[in-house]
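User: Some background: our group keeps a shared notebook of sequences we're curious about, and every so often someone picks one and asks for a predicted structure to add to the entry. Today it's my turn. The entry only has the sequence so far, pasted here. Could you supply the structure so I can complete it?
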Amino acid sequence: MTTQTLQFVRRGEIVSLRNVAPSRTMLELLRQDLHRSATKEGCNEGDCGACTVVLGEADGERIRYRAVNSCIRLAHSINGLALWTAEDLVNADGRLHPVQQALLQSHASQCGFCTPGFVMSLFGMYQNHVCQGEPITRELAQQELSGNLCRCTGYRPILEAAQQMAELPPVRIDEAALLQKLKRIAPTVARLGAQAAYLAPQTLAALLGARAAHPQAQLVAGGTDVGVWVNKLHRPLGQVLDLTQVQELRRIETYPQHIAIGAAVTLNDAFAALVADRPQLHPFAARFAGLPVRNAGTLGGNVANGSPIGDSMPLLIALGANVVLMSLRGSRELPLEQLYRGYRQNVLAADEVLAWIKVPKPTPSELLKVYKISKRFDDDISAVCLALNLRMSEGKVARACIGVGGVAATPVRAVKTEAALRGQAWTLATVQQAMTTLRGEFQPISDLRASASYRVQVLGNLLMRFWLESQGQQNINLEAFTLAGEDT
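Assistant: Of course. Here's the predicted structure to add to the notebook entry:
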């Protein structure tokens, strides 16, 4: 296999690097190859945020900025993008960027190890909100910093710094000049030689052709799990087929009865589309990993990966989503829950890719809720995820669709519990009977996140919570609580 020249823009200049292995991460590239040590290695699995950097991508005549975890981002995936690290923000004359100045004025650094990651998440926030004339509220700061952990628990001054950034003299990026630099970088489509180690097609036709020609290549659609395989399992990647540059699969298309989300749409953009149709999903969307993971990972990658504790699948199952699989031979469509045939195993043929996720539009009688149970409220993997979607008619359950994660080898649909609810009056007695059915429907395992008995008990409890909330009960969910002084 041959490796292509990797090109990106940093500090206003085009950086060109040769012989970068397909399994090289961006963090390794920065620290070991470029000797840029400001970006820190913490957990090396996208959990702590110490390695956060910001990527810039051309979006028409503007630049779109995304904070991502460099530890689980494959280096070649930034070909054609702009890169900023914590040491790239100081002006040539030594003046601090407003992000850095606000942190300094707020005394927001303690041991300092996590600070570069917070700086970059704040920088992304600055570009996406402050530079657009939008205020930084405490709630927004909490949501967008949820992927950064401070072991010293110094969150209050960091949140204060986030709100103070806009009060300092503004600093703006010359986006016109940056766009010209990005246009000078060789297009990714040129990186499709027969023996290329990192394939990054830009069209759907090219992707399907590459998949047929290289069925052994590792498909990557964001790499937030593949990066962990590389770092923690030391799994070599002989050849990579990256679908995140396929233009057709980066779209979200709206139809009268459904929306179609391309497999290369980021988790953040995909959830924004789901929340636009169903605003009640916003709290769950905000808890789906930290923003740097949602900025890098894709909905298609999360679904195709098929982790039993992946949070998007229970929700999509409850929504009645279908997946579209494509190859040069044609396409086929099936319910999402039928995609899986075992632990991290799916029905995709060697020459197929998951191309689209089709999600039905909501109905007026829809009663929807999704619950995530984890040890930490933010930036954590679920022990149990339960999504319930009922269609009510004259006080009865006309239709039930329930997706569950964390209780089986794959994300699953609770068909027995659905049957127990269907056609029944939506009463306490019905719910109590369904709780028994739900608790007996699966045989979860015990692991470091929860015991089997805990998972079984929680499943029934969540169904009861769902019923109580449907009856108007409040303050029985952490999402309903606001800390005193939170907005001061």
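Suggested note for the entry: The chain has a mean pLDDT of 93. The domain at 18-181 is CATH 3.10.20.30 (Ubiquitin-like (UB roll)).
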